[in-house]
Structure to design on (71 residues):
């Protein structure tokens, strides 16, 4: 699914999924990198993001995969 990752002025990251008209905060995961990792959204969804360079400018739209609950 296409997901747009944005950074708010306060530094929090959000994920917007157009097909669902859903925008949720990406929960902090400590030192875990954003790209090439699994992230958890505030609504409980888990997304696997592609591996991109750390310095990738935001906002950016990527192809992400939703992981099943409990994985």
């Amino acid at each position: 699914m296409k997901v747009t990752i944005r950074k708010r002025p306060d530094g929090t990251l959000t994920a917007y999924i157009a097909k669902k008209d859903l925008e949720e905060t990406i929960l902090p995961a400590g030192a875990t990198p954003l790209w090439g990792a699994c992230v958890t959204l505030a609504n409980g969804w888990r997304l696997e993001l592609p591996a991109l360079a750390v310095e990738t400018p935001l906002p950016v739209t990527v192809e992400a995969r939703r992981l099943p609950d409990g994985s």
Remarks:
- Strands lie at 2-7, 13-17, 22-25, 38-40, 46-48, 60-63, 65-67.
- Residues 2-67 form a domain with the OB fold (Dihydrolipoamide Acetyltransferase, E2P) fold (CATH 2.40.50.240).
